[in-house]
Amino acid sequence: MTAPTTVRYGELIPCKTAFIDAHTPGSDQKENFTIIGGGVSESADQHVHITTPHGFNIGAAGQPPKCRNSLHSHRTAEVFFVLSGRWRFFWGRHGTAGEVVLEEGDIIDIPTGIFRGFENIGTDYGMIMAILGGDDAGGGVIWAPQVIEDARDHGLILGENGKLYDSKAGQTPPEGVHPMPTLTDDELADFPELSPMQVVGWGVRRYNDMTALARHRPCKVIGATGIIRDKPGFEVDLITRTSATDTPHAHDRPSVLMPMRGHWRVTWGQGADAGAEVLAPGDTMSVPAGLPHAAVPSMTGEASLFHIVSTDDPAGPSWLQ
């Protein structure tokens, strides 16, 4: 039986030209990582670490202080948890409908169909981990009109085929491929301006609260019965030292382990197929379907781990159902 595949934090391969705002001042220092699945990168330079379909995508964004990700939207769920740093998330047509600051370990499930962005407001390089619904992540990114216009002023053109072309490097869309049109006023009317209560009250959960709920059993963070009641095509659990078990279990589909705090020893298989590996914060492990495995902390101190597995729910808009 196939062993798990692990992507180490220190071995992540970044892409600095992943999106249309790669040259736009204030956004030109960000790094994008695609860990599992094709992601939503618009650049052929994006490296994909694990291509096996999981029913969702796993990615990450690394940014220095004061660097932001421009306003965009997705057709499927977008969930973030803060691995390191301090981050401001904002939303709305112009990014002024609301905002929230997330600390390390906090998680946000951003409703589909709204423009959102984020920036590192900490003092050091920060990293946020992302889960995107569906194997194709909704077919790409929908940008606010001003983002496309600003990018064009700085040499980047997004083709209607979803690919980027750098005019500063002499690139132009091939014959028959037109620039991506900006959304019309009628189309923009379909993107609601949600209030802070609608976004924060529904889709933000704090790390300390989740670990308190995970004291005796794993905390169902996102799911039909989760503390965020959403069905985005996957479920997210938080497991802590006191709710972890060394009893092996298996899933009928691939699952993912992502430590937040501490070191975790993952064991799997039996006999000649048995194996073990220690994961640290920032590492991502993909466990194959049907493989019995268990994860427990390997050292003393605080320990927490996010567990993600797909469901049979559609990967499209589902919030507040």
From TrEMBL:
Keywords: Isomerase. This is Mannose-6-phosphate isomerase, cupin superfamily. GO terms for molecular function: isomerase activity. It comes from the Bacteria. InterPro entries: Cupin_2, RmlC-like_jellyroll, RmlC_Cupin_sf. The lineage of its organism: Bacteria, Pseudomonadati, Pseudomonadota, Alphaproteobacteria, Rhodobacterales. Residues 65-128 form the Cupin type-2 domain.
